[in-house]
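hey so i finaly got around to running the thing on S-acyltransferase from Vigna radiata var. radiata. pasting the sequence first so u can double check i didnt mess up the copy paste, my clipboard has been acting weird all day
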Amino acid sequence: MTIARMCSPMRTWERPMDRCFRIFPCLADPGRRSSLCLKVALVTIHLVYAGVLFLFDGDLIEKTKKEPWYTALYLLLFVGTLIQYFATSLSSPGYVLDAMMTVHDRNVAYKKTPDTSSQSASSKNGSFVVSMEENLLGSSTISWSKLVSDLYPLGSSIRTWTCTYCNVEQPPRAKHCHDCDKCVLQFDHHCVWLGNCIGQGNHCKFWWYLFEETALCLWTGVLYISYLKDHITRIWWQDAILILLLITLSVWLIFLLLLLLFHSYLILTNQTTFELVRRRRIHYLRGIPERVHPFSRGVRKNLFYFCCTRSAVYRFEPLPTTQEIEEKSRPYTCSDALTCRCC
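ok and heres what it spat out for the C-alpha cells, dont ask me to read them lol
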C-alpha cells in the first residue's frame, strides 16, 4: 500500500503530460522541447525590455502621440527582429542528404527526359538547384560519389571524406552536427539559442538576424539612457530596475557586436567558424598557411555569393589546386593594391 501511495502522485502527474504529448507530439522530444523553451525565453526577454520601457517612461508615450513615426520604426524593428529570428531557426542549413537526393532526382529526371541538354540541373519540383563549378559540368548526369570525388584532389582516400556517423560521402566544408545528427553543407556552428545549425542555406539569414538584434539592442539602450538621464532622481526602485536591465543589455550588446563583426570577417574571407577554430584538425586545411583563405574568391565575389545566391541552391566548392594556393600565398605588393587583387 505504501508503494502504491508513493506512486499515485507520479501517475497523476504523468497523465496530463501524456495528454500534452499526444496533442503536441513535438514536446515529446527533449531536444525540441528545450529549443522551444529557449525560444519562449528569448521572446519573453524582448517583451520585458520593451514593456518596462513603455510602462515607466510616460514621456515616451507623449512623444509617440506627437511623433508616431519614431515609435513605429522602433516597433517595426522589434517585430522584424523576432520574425528574422524564427525565420532563421526554422530554415534549413543545407543538409548533405538533401543535396544527395536532389542530385539523384536530377539524374532520374534527365534519364526520363530525352532532350535536357539545355536545362539546368534541378530537382523535379524545381525548389532546389545544384550549382557546381565549370569543371564538374562535363556530363549532364553524374553520381553523388563521382561528384564528391571530383571536388577532392586526385589520390584522396574515400575514408577521408566519408562521415563515420551517417556513412555519407561529404563534399568539402561539410561536417556532421551531433546535435542535429545530420551532415551540414558548409557547416559553421550549431546555435543553441536558435536550436538549429548554421550552414550554407541559412548563414545569410543568421547574419541579418545578428544585425537586426544588434540594432534593436542599441536603440533600446539609447531609450533607457534617455529615460535615466531625465528621471534619475524621481522613483528609486524604477531607476534600480532600469539600471540593472541596462547593464545586462550592455553586456548583450557587446557580445552581439563582436559576433556581428566576427561573422562579417568570415563572410569577407569566405570562411566558417568551424574552419577558423579547428583549422589544424581539418584534413584539407592542414598544409595551408593560416593567413591564406583557400576558398576566398575576393571580397566582392564573396559578398556576391553570400548575399545574392538563393538559399535553395546547393553550391559545391572544389578544393583549390596547388597553383591556386601558391597564388593566394603570394604576399601583397603596391601593384596588387592598385589592381584590387583582394577584391
